[in-house]
Each structure stands twice: as C-alpha cells, then as structure tokens.
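Good morning,

Attaching, inline, the backbone tokens for the sequence recovery test we're adding to the shared suite. The designed sequence is right after.
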C-alpha cells in the first residue's frame, strides 16, 4: 500500500468521530448540489471557482497583510492563485485537532475565518469559500510559506490525500499562500478556462482593491 493509500485509510477510520462526520457531510453536500453553492456547473460556475479562491487573498489584502495576488491558468486548465499574505495558519486547530490549514480547506464555511476568536480576520460578506472549490476539484494543492517553512497538503474531491507536510525552507520575509486546483470534470460541463472571462473579473477586483496587483499568465 502506498503512503497516500495508507493515509486515506487512516483518515477514513478517524472519520467515525462526531466532529469528522460533520466535515464529510459538509463537503459531500457541495458535491451533491454544486449549483446551490456556486450558481451553476457550467462556464459561469467554473470561473466562479477562481473568484472564491482570489476572494480569500483579497480578504488578506483588506486586512493589510497582502499586496500581491497572482493568478495563473495552467495548460491543463489548473488554476494557481498565489498571494504574499501571512499564509494560512498551520498550527493545530484547538477544537478539531487538525492543522488549521486542513480545517480551512475541508470544513464548509470555515474559509479563512474561524467562528470566533483569534482567527477572525475580517467581517465582510464573502463567498462560500475555498473548501467548496476543494470539494469540486479532482486535485487541489495548498502551499503555505510561513515562519521560514514551506508547508503543503494535497486533496482530491475535498479529501486530504496527505497530511500537512513541511516540504522546504523559505526566508522569514517570504510568506503567503498558494492554491493550485483543477476542477472536477464529472461536475462541470466544461473545465476549459477562458482567458478573457478571467482577465475581466480579475481587472474588476484589482480596480476595487487598490494596492493589490492581480496578474494572469497564459503560461
Ligand atoms: C486566517 C488567519 C490568518 C491568515 C489567513 C486566515 C489567510 C487565509 C488565506 C487564504 C488565502 N490566502 C490567505 N492568507 C491568509 C493569519 C493569522 C495570523 O497569522 O495570526
């Protein structure tokens, strides 16, 4: 059995605890009725996924910790959103006993902002969050640069396929979050991203959020 298969099996065993059942129900609800969360499962919903991810970085910019957001469309129609914010925290979430990163990525509505307390960053009105994008992606990778370390976790259909790993070092002054996702072709009628739709949306966001540089690269 591969390390990944072992990890998935362990997680499935852990999921019998009450708190984890809630997590699974959350993201399975998104896969069952995706349109309820992202509007539709066609071209509009597909592009909405990008806004959901970028919105988290915009929040970080509005909180004053991020002044650069880069978006890339990959040749395989994967999307990369990279910001230079504080990085999603990776320490253990006190209630769920999992890395905060895993909670943000796998709990519906957790977004970047937990219920109350220390993780509350901004109080604005936002979308359904990056966990929905995770639920609707056949592959997602979250990378966090924080405190001199680079952390990474991967997911498929919203479920982690690895633990949060330290994959390298970075300079203390290098911090931020990178989300790479590939939309699930069994959910969307098309998984082909349109440069013009995305660049128009990103231009609007860049205009509304002075100081944030949004760039998009056709690769
Ligand atoms: C909660 C707390 C902190 C950062 C974030 C969320 C955060 C989330 C996202 C999602 C995309 N980019 C992000 N950047 C930051 C920081 C809490 C702290 O450092 O004290």
């Amino acid at each position: 059995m591969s390390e990944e298969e072992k990890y998935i099996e362990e997680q499935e065993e852990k999921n019998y605890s009450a708190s984890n059942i809630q997590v699974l129900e959350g993201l399975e609800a998104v896969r069952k009725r995706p349109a309820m969360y992202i509007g539709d499962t066609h071209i509009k919903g597909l592009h909405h996924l990008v806004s959901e991810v970028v919105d988290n970085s915009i929040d970080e910019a509005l909180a004053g910790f991020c002044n650069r957001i880069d978006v890339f469309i990959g040749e395989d129609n994967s999307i990369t959103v990279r910001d230079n914010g504080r990085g999603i925290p990776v320490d253990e979430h006190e209630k769920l006993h999992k890395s905060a990163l895993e909670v943000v990525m796998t709990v519906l509505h957790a977004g970047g902002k937990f219920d109350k307390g220390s993780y509350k960053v901004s109080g604005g009105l936002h979308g359904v969050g990056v966990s929905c994008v995770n639920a609707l992606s056949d592959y997602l990778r979250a990378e966090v640069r924080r405190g001199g370390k680079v952390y990474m976790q991967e997911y498929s259909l919203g479920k982690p396929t690895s633990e949060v790993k330290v994959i390298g070092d970075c300079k203390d002054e290098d911090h931020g979050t990178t989300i790479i996702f590939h939309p699930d072709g069994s959910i969307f009628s098309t998984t082909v991203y349109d440069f013009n739709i995305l660049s128009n949306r990103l231009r609007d966001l860049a205009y509304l959020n002075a100081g944030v540089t949004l760039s998009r690269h056709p690769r």
